[in-house]
Each structure stands twice: as structure tokens, then as C-alpha cells.
């Protein structure tokens, strides 16, 4: 391939430094360094060698974004030269991610959440005030140094409304501020300071029944010693004595099911990968957590990062992986820093790397930072993203356990699933299964947000009712009444106030034709304008569809348009016809889309119509 | 051989073949748009979906490999529904006026794309929309992919209002044939589109004018400039054209050419998909060299 670069576009020294920050200085004239005569010209690192580093594309683009504030043609040219990637291809990748800009963008940007939980807590007012006092979305400040954009859920729904500040420069800054108010955001836009990071204190702090959250808020997330003083690394030692098959046996006995949304039995997945002859095997910890209303993995990562590392190490040991990735959404700067710090300590103390704890077992973990794409949480889109491509889901089969990351057998697990493994190993599989119900074992993290008195992540055994859970969070505040509960997030469904006795188990929700999804429980009081709320859900899916397949790419738009007509009353032939459009498009998306995004994009909307009777004047 | 059942009929095909192959073997005509005989299936349009017994969702016939004992339905209510909707969603957002198979498919599935409302006009800003954002619609017009037609070189025209995003041109230009990578999918969701880097005009891009993207494009979004101009003038008459087979004279490879001639003028050049040298592909000389031939013939250069 002959690399054709954007004509007349040279990188600036700052752009060169940003790229070299990730790739190291170029080794020869071939990959962008100075041309020298002599032997070096023949020992270039280009072609195949460079293409083997394709997976560094996203980190490199990120580096430009963080240090320069956008990806200019000159900057992209230099990336393409270093990695031997055609510019059209790299441009396609850059434009896939909402946090990367290919048009000039000021150094200081505030991303303002306009998503579901924040809508319950004044994001609408916040945005109206910004529009009035600063300017519309994307408009520059007077000195051209800042702007703001609307953002999907930032995973801070317990502190709504939330914003994220990103300041590009040699020492890039990313900070979440939540809850946020207009004066504070205006000050951020004017160059103000973001203040200290909030500590992570779960509402049930100190309760003896906590398993997954037992250390969160009590242990110093920056100290390996403190982690060890709180039982840390006991599970890994025990796992080594069980051996890989022993770990998998306990896991199967535990009946642990994935907590990322699909509830797949973890032991079965691990066994399938462990048995694959192809090498190497990869482990991916799914920390993309972008489902609106979900913030449980963030709490684990911020509050107990060593637990995630230890659990990944056990997973790698059991499934014969030597390399693991944590794919973490770009909107989690605090979790990113916590995990990075923990990884460095674990590495320097022999808990990662070669010969862990003196065993003949080596394992390394790398963080990959997402860049604003909900779809990259889908298990095959993650692979594409890590490989440096557009985050478009793959058609299945083949399944990840056979052909995953870099075409190799891969375990993908959610953060919460992995942290459960520590308990499975420590308490044995059957011991773990004593908690919860017959087919939903263990405890579950629920993300309570919206109109509850004490929002936050709650840990309860499977089987408690939705009513118990809402009571735990203090119920609906301010003397208002409950209108509906959104379960499972934007891809989930609504329940009515008369359905609160639902037992929260996988089988219970399945029977009730709803879902636990990623553990979202969003309470909506009677002030919520449900049709507008649905419009936001529709907008979310339209924005987050990867665009690959027709049912989802166009279907999400057609559903949103139908909702808009219902909202304005200017229907195309009456309410019934519009509801039919939504149902028919929904059926096609469910049946014919490539991935779970399209397959579930209409479920919340259809449940609001079917279960709550929205647009039909009352409950159905 | 693998034995399976399609619409109740037993059929045997080779291992590694697809449900589409099995359907063809028993004479079941399955609609396809993104599938191309010469390319790896992108399986993105979903017009070919079928019902596989026991599966939660429908499967794309064009890429799903057959399995022993599979029971496939190609004409169930669910299948007809999804195919109809896919066609409606496409026809309401894309200009299918030059997609040869469109009228037949739309009629076969009784598609009513008009039910989503009148189509939104072309938007020059579409090429640079901010990822993950959009202007909230009022629903009174159906959003479309319509953009002004791109005429930036002498050889071919890109009219992305007609693009169904089948990925074929990207695959042909990229790793499956040409290895030029001049074009790629950019943006996301409904704003996803075929683009060069930073929307550069074709002469500024890596394009080498092999025209292999035109050859695979199923919709006429990519078109010879000669064809585009004749169509604009209302003078494109496919039924009056003759097709002459010849061997490309420009080099020793020996590519087969099909010269499409209307009124004694070559209006486009293709190569047969099943030719074992070209598999439908050519280079700039074979594809567009006819312009030189004609320029010489008429004495005008
Ligand atoms: C659109 C979409 C987004 C997803 N996002 C996430 C996510 O952010 N985190 C996650 O753990 N799983 C997510 N999933 C589920 C994953 O595909 C996968 O099932 C999960 O990571 C497997 O891990 P588990 O077995 O531990 O649950 C998503 C799925 C879809 C379809
Ligand atoms: S369903 Fe949506 S997100 Fe999934 S592959 Fe299709 S277009 Fe992409
Ligand atoms: S003409 Fe050839 S090089 Fe140019 S875009 Fe098409 S396939 Fe690529
Ligand atoms: S231009 Fe043609 S070949 Fe390319 S994606 Fe669009 S319809 Fe397919
Ligand atoms: S942070 Fe705003 S909705 Fe989640
Ligand atoms: S032809 Fe099978 S998905 Fe397009």
C-alpha cells in the first residue's frame, strides 16, 4: 500500500510530541523521523511492523485530543505515517467517537449531561441557563478558549446533574463535577478550578452484609498494603492452590451469571475459553459502563481498584490468558487514575508481570480508554475498538470464546462479575450460591437514581423486592408519588407503581417481561413528563447506534420521529398509526439488527406504551 | 456435505456454504443488497434475513454458515415483516431510483416508505456533522441521507443520496481488492457516510481511479461520469445499449472488458465478476481508457 497523506498538512511540534508520547520517537525516516543516510534507511520500522501496532491508533488519537484539543489534518498525517494507516481509514475511526474532534475545538470543553437521571435533577434548567448566559452548545467563549456540549449519561447519576470538564494541554485535565449548578459551570468555562474529587462513599457503608462493596469507602484505594490488610490477595493465593480447573469448577458450582446485562453463566464462558487450543487467550474487563443510569462499576473501580486487578488475575490464571485489557469509558477520569495507580503498585510489587507470587504464571493488564461510544461496551465492538478500528459490533457466530480480540479466544466480563469471583474463590462455589435464590446466586449491585431520597449503589442479595430496594434508598422524596420505575436503563423497561413486589432475580424479571440489565433502578415521580423522557431515550439510541445495519441506523430515527409527532400532536394519520409505526419498526429492530443495541433500542419506549399507557391516556 | 431444511425442503450443500447458497440451490430467490459475489459478506443491510428454528433473532442468509439439521424459514411472517421494514427504512431515507433491484423488492414486500412522511431535502452539512449529536426532529419530515452530488473529477460521480452504506466500495477500495483505502465509513449512526479524509475531493485523495468501487456499488451512488451526464440529460437508454467483450489493450495482464455502447459511443466499461483474472476489477486504463480511444476517434482531444 502506498500511503497517500493529506496534501499540505504538516504536524506541529506539539502534535508530534503528542503522538510520540504514545508511540515513542520515530526510529527512522520511514516512520516519520529525520531521514539519515546509511544503514538506518534499510532498517525501517514501517510496513508490517507498523501495521502490527494498529491497536495503538485509538490511544494515539486520544493523545492528540487531550494535548491539542482536536485532531488536525497535520496531526492525523503524522499518526498515519507512524502507524502506516491510510488517512481515510484513520479519519473514519476518529469520527466514530464523540469525544474526539476532527474540527477545531477550544482547549477547554464542558460536557453537560442531558440524560435520564440528570433530567430528574434539573439538567434542563442548567442547560437553559448556559444557553442564556454563555451561548448555545458549541458556541465559543469571547476569548475563544472554551465551549460546552450536551453529553449522554456520564455515569454520575447519583450526583446528578453532572458535567465533565476536559482541558487540553501538555498536562491534560479531565474532571467530573457533580452535582453541578450553572454558576459553577460558567466558572469552569471561564477557566475556573474544578475543586477536589469527591470520595466514593456507598450509602450502606459499614453494613456487615456487604460483599462486593465491603471495602469501598473503607480501604485506601491508593494503597496495596491497605488492600492486603482488608483480605486483599487472599483469593488469588487460594486460586493458585485450587489450580485453573479447580477455579472453574468453583465458578460453575457458584452459578454466577454475568452482571453486564446478558446474564450468561461465567463458569461456562471461562471453561469454553480455557479449552480453546488457539493461543494466546485474551481477557477483557468490560468497564465501558455507558448504559444511562449505570454507575456501579465506577464505584468499584474508584473505591476498590485492587479487587478488580486481583479478580482479573484469577480469571487470567483460570483461562490461560497472559494479557488483559480494561476497556474503560473515557468519561471515568477518576476511576482511570485510581486503576492506573493500583496497576503500577501491583506491578512493582510482583502482583502483575512475570511469575506472580512465585508461581509460574505471568499476566499483564493494560487500560484502554474509550472515547465516547456506548456501543463499545458490546462485547465484540470492544474488540474492534481495542484493535484500532471503528467500534462496530461483529456478526455472531463466531463467538468471542472462539474468535475474539485479535481473532483469538477471549473472555469478556463485566467489572462487577469479576469482583464476584473473589468471593466465589474465598467462600467456594456452593458457599457463594447460598446467597440469593436457586437460580440467581449471590448479591447484586443496583444503581438507584432519579427521584429517590438517597441515590447511590446498593448491594442486596438476589430476591429482595423492588419495593425493599426503593425503601432502602429512602423512597420518593418531597411527598411526591411514584409514577414509574425504569429498570435496566435505556435498553430496559418501565414498571408501574403497582408492580413493586417484583422479586429482583433474573427469573423474576424474565417472568414479568422486564430486565435487570446492568442494575439500573431509576425512580420517576409524578413531575416527570414521560413522553419527553421517551424522546431522550430515542435520541440516545439514535446518537449511539454505530450505523452499520439498516434496522438500527434508520429505525432509531423513525421511532424518534414518530415520538416527536405524538408529542406535538401533529400525527401522521392519528395516534394509533404512530403507535403502529413504533411497534413495527421495533419488531424489525429486535429481529433483524446485528447486535444488542438495535435489538433493545425500542424496548423501553414500547414498554412505556404497553405498560404505562403513555400516549393512550392512562395505564394499559 | 451438510444437510438442512429450507422451507420444509431438504437440501445438501458443502460445509462452509451459507444459507443463501442453500436457498439458491432449491431455487428460493432471496433479496440481497449489501451482498456481493466477489466480496466478503458485510451483512449489514439485513434484507436477506431468515428465521432459523430455535434462534432468538433472525439470521442474515448471506453470511450465516449452514449447520447440519438447521431448519430455515424464508417466508414466515417474521421474515416478511423485517424484509419489508428494512426496505421501507431504506427507501424512505435513500434515493433508490438507480438501484436496479429496488422496484421488484419494494413491490414483492408491499413496502410503503411514504408512511414515514415526506423526505427531507439534501443537507450540505451532513458530511461534517458532530458525532453523537443531532438536532431534535419534529417528525414532520423523514430524515434522509440526501447530500449534494459530488462531481469533482472527470471520471466518476459520487451521489451519496443514493448510498445504502453497504460497505462494498470500502471493501473493494481497501483490503479486499485495490489496497488503496481512499474511502472509508466516517461518522456514526444515521450520520455514518462514505468519506475521504476530512471530506477531501477525490483528486486530493488517495484515489487511483480504478473504478472498482463503481463496479461493486449496487445503487448507482457511484457512477461513470458519462452515465451520470446522459442520465441527467434524459438520454440514458440501457435497452438500446450493446455490450461487446474484448481484451484490454493497455498491458499484458489480459483483463476482460465489457464495453457498453450507446449510439456508437462507449458509455461505460465493466469486467465480468466471474472472470478469474479480474473478478470484476480493473485499473484506470481499462476502466476509463475508452475516453482516450473516443477522443482519438473523433479527433477532438
Ligand atoms: C450496546 C451494548 C452495550 C453494552 N455495554 C456494556 C457495558 O458497558 N459493560 C458491560 O459489562 N457489558 C456491556 N454490554 C454487555 C456485553 O456485550 C457483554 O455481554 C458483557 O460484557 C459480558 O460480561 P458478563 O458476562 O460479565 O456480563 C453491552 C451490550 C450491548 C449490546
Ligand atoms: S444494531 Fe445498531 S449498534 Fe448494533 S450493529 Fe446494528 S447499527 Fe450497529
Ligand atoms: S476508483 Fe478505485 S481507488 Fe478510487 S475510490 Fe474507487 S476503488 Fe478506490
Ligand atoms: S457508495 Fe455504493 S458501494 Fe459504496 S456504500 Fe454506498 S451504496 Fe455501497
Ligand atoms: S450522569 Fe446524567 S444521567 Fe447519568
Ligand atoms: S444481503 Fe445479507 S445482510 Fe445485506
From TrEMBL, chain A:
The keyword Amino-acid biosynthesis is assigned to this record: no
Domain NADH-ubiquinone oxidoreductase 51kDa subunit iron-sulphur binding, chain residue ranges per copy: 531-576
Biased composition (Basic and acidic residues): 33-50
Gene3D superfamilies, per the entry: 3.10.20.600, 6.10.250.1450, Glutaredoxin (3.40.30.10), NADH-quinone oxidoreductase subunit E (1.10.10.1590), NADH-ubiquinone oxidoreductase 51kDa subunit (3.40.50.11540), NADH-ubiquinone oxidoreductase 51kDa subunit, iron-sulphur binding domain (1.20.1440.230)
GO MF annotations, alphabetized: 4 iron, 4 sulfur cluster binding; FMN binding; metal ion binding; NADH dehydrogenase (ubiquinone) activity
CDD domains named among the record's database cross-references: TRX_Fd_NuoE
Residue stretches in coiled coil: none
Annotated keywords: 4Fe-4S, Iron, Iron-sulfur, Metal-binding
InterPro entries per the UniProt record, alphabetical: NADH-UbQ_OxRdtase_51kDa_CS, Nuo51_FMN-bd, Nuo51_FMN-bd_sf, NuoE_dom, NuoE_N, Nuop51_4Fe4S-bd, Nuop51_4Fe4S-bd_sf, Soluble_ligand-bd
Region feature Disordered, mapped onto this chain: 23-50
Family per similarity comment: Belongs to the complex I 51 kDa subunit family.
Name by which UniProt lists this protein: Respiratory-chain NADH dehydrogenase 51 Kd subunit
Organismal lineage: Bacteria, Bacillati, Actinomycetota, Thermoleophilia, Gaiellales
Amino acid at each position: 500500500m502506498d500511503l497517500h497523506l493529506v496534501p499540505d498538512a504538516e504536524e506541529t511540534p506539539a502534535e508530534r510530541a503528542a503522538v510520540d508520547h504514545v508511540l515513542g520517537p520515530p526510529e527512522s525516516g520511514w516512520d516519520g523521523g529525520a531521514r539519515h543516510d546509511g544503514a538506518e534507511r534499510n532498517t525501517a520500522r514501517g510496513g508490517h511492523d507498523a501495521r502490527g501496532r494498529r491497536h495503538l491508533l485509538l490511544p494515539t488519537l486520544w493523545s492528540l485530543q487531550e494535548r491539542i484539543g482536536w485532531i488536525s489534518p497535520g496531526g492525523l498525517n503524522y499518526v498515519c505515517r507512524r502507524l502506516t494507516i491510510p488517512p481515510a481509514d484513520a479519519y473514519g475511526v476518529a469520527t466514530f467517537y464523540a469525544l474526539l474532534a476532527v474540527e477545531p475545538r477550544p482547549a477547554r470543553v464542558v460536557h453537560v449531561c442531558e440524560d435520564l437521571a440528570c433530567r430528574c435533577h434539573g439538567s434542563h434548567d442548567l442547560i437553559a441557563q448556559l444557553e442564556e448566559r454563555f451561548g448555545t452548545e458549541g458556541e465559543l467563549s469571547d476569548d475563544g478558549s472554551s465551549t460546552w456540549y450536551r453529553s449522554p449519561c456520564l455515569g454520575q447519576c447519583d450526583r446528578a446533574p453532572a458535567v465533565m470538564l476536559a482541558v487540553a494541554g501538555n498536562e491534560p485535565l479531565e474532571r467530573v463535577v457533580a452535582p453541578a449548578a450553572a454558576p459553577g459551570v460558567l466558572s469552569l468555562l471561564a477557566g475556573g478550578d474544578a475543586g477536589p474529587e469527591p470520595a466514593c462513599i456507598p450509602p450502606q457503608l459499614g453494613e456487615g452484609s456487604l460483599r462486593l462493596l465491603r471495602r469501598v469507602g473503607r480501604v485506601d484505594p491508593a494503597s496495596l498494603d491497605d488492600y492486603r490488610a482488608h483480605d486483599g490477595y487472599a483469593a488469588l493465593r487460594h486460586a493458585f492452590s485450587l489450580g485453573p480447573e479447580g477455579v472453574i469448577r468453583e465458578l460453575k458450582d457458584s452459578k454466577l451469571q454475568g452482571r453486564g446485562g446478558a446474564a450468561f453463566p461465567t463458569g461456562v464462558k471461562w471453561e469454553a475459553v480455557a479449552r480453546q487450543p488457539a493461543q494466546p487467550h485474551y481477557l477483557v474487563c468490560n468497564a465501558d459502563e455507558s448504559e444511562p443510569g449505570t454507575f456501579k462499576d465506577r464505584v468499584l473501580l474508584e473505591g476498590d481498584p485492587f479487587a478488580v486487578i486481583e479478580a482479573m488475575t484469577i480469571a487470567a490464571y483460570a483461562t490461560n490468558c497472559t494479557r488483559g485489557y480494561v476497556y474503560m469509558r473515557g468519561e471515568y477520569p477518576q476511576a482511570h487514575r485510581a486503576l492506573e495507580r493500583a496497576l503500577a503498585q501491583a506491578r512493582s510489587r510482583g502482583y502483575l508481570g512475570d511469575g506472580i507470587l512465585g508461581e509460574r504464571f505471568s499476566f499483564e493488564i493494560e487500560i484502554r480508554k474509550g472515547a465516547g461510544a456506548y456501543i463499545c461496551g458490546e462485547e465484540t465492538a470492544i474488540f474492534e475498538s481495542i484493535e484500532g478500528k471503528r467500534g462496530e459490533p461483529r456478526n455472531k457466530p463466531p463467538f468471542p470464546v472462539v474468535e475474539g480480540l485479535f481473532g483469538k479466544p477471549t473472555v469478556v466480563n463485566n467489572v462487577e462479575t469479576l469482583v464476584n469471583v473473589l468471593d466465589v474463590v474465598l467462600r467456594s462455589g456452593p458457599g457463594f450460591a447460598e446467597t440469593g435464590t436457586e437460580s440467581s446466586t449471590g448479591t447484586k449491585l443496583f444503581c438507584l437514581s432519579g427521584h429517590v431520597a438517597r441515590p447511590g449503589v446498593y448491594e442486596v442479595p438476589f430476591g429482595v423486592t423492588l419495593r425493599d430496594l426503593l425503601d432502602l434508598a429512602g423512597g420518593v422524596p418531597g411527598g411526591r408519588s411514584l409514577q414509574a420505575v425504569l429498570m435496566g436503563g435505556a435498553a430496559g423497561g418501565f414498571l408501574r407503581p403497582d408492580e413493586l413486589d417484583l422479586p429482583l432475580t433474573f427469573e423474576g424479571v424474565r417472568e414479568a417481561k422486564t430486565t435487570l440489565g446492568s442494575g439500573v433502578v431509576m425512580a420517576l415521580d409524578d413531575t416527570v413528563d414521560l413522553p419527553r423522557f421517551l424522546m431522550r431515550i430515542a435520541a440516545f439510541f439514535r446518537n449511539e447506534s454505530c450505523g452499520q445495519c439498516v434496522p438500527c441506523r434508520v429505525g432509531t430515527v423513525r421511532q424518534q420521529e414518530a415520538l416527536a409527532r405524538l408529542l406535538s400532536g401533529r400525527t401522521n394519520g392519528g395516534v394509533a398509526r404512530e403507535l403502529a409505526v413504533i411497534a413495527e419498526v421495533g419488531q424489525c429492530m429486535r429481529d433483524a439488527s446485528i447486535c444488542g443495541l438495535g435489538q433493545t433500542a425500542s424496548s423501553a419506549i414500547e414498554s412505556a406504551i404497553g405498560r404505562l399507557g403513555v400516549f393512550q391516556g392512562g395505564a394499559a | 456435505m451438510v444437510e438442512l431444511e429450507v422451507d420444509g425442503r431438504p437440501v445438501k450443500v458443502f460445509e462452509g456454504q451459507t444459507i443463501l447458497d442453500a436457498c439458491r440451490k432449491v431455487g428460493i430467490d432471496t433479496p440481497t443488497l449489501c451482498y456481493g459475489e466477489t466480496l466478503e459478506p458485510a451483512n449489514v443491510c439485513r434484507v436477506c434475513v431468515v428465521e432459523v428454528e430455535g434462534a432468538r433473532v433472525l439470521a442474515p442468509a448471506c453470511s450465516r454458515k449452514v449447520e447440519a439439521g438447521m431448519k430455515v424459514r424464508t417466508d414466515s411472517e417474521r421474515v416478511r415483516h423485517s424484509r419489508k421494514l428494512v426496505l421501507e427504512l431504506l427507501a424512505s431515507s435513500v434515493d433508490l431510483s438507480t438501484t436496479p433491484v429496488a422496484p421488484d423488492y419494494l413491490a414483492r414486500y408491499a413496502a410503503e416508505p411514504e408512511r414515514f412522511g415526506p423526505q427531507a431535502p439534501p443537507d450540505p452539512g451532513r458530511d461534517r456533522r458532530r458525532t453523537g449529536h443531532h438536532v431534535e426532529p419534529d417528525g414532520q419530515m423523514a430524515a434522509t441521507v440526501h447530500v449534494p452530488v459530488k462531481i469533482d473529477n472527470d471520471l466518476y460521480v459520487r451521489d451519496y443520496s443514493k448510498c445504502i452504506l453497504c460497505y462494498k466500495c470500502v471493501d473493494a477500495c481497501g483490503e479486499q481488492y485495490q489496497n488503496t483505502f481512499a474511502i472509508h465509513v466516517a461518522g456514526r449512526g444515521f450520520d455514518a457516510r462514505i468519506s475521504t479524509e476530512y471530506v477531501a475531493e477525490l483528486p486530493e485523495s488517495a484515489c487511483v481511479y480504478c473504478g472498482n468501487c463503481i463496479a461493486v456499488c449496487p445503487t448507482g451512488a457511484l457512477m461513470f461520469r458519462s452515465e451520470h451526464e446522459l442520465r441527467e440529460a434524459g438520454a440514458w437508454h440501457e435497452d438500446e445499449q450493446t455490450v461487446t467483450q474484448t481484451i484490454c489493450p493497455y498491458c499484458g495482464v489480459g483483463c476482460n472488458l465489457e464495453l457498453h455502447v450507446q449510439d456508437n459511443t462507449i458509455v461505460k466499461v465493466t469486467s465480468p465478476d466471474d472472470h478469474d483474472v479480474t473478478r470484476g476489477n480493473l485499473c484506470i486504463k481499462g476502466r476509463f481508457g475508452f475516453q482516450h480511444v473516443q477522443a482519438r476517434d473523433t479527433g477532438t482531444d
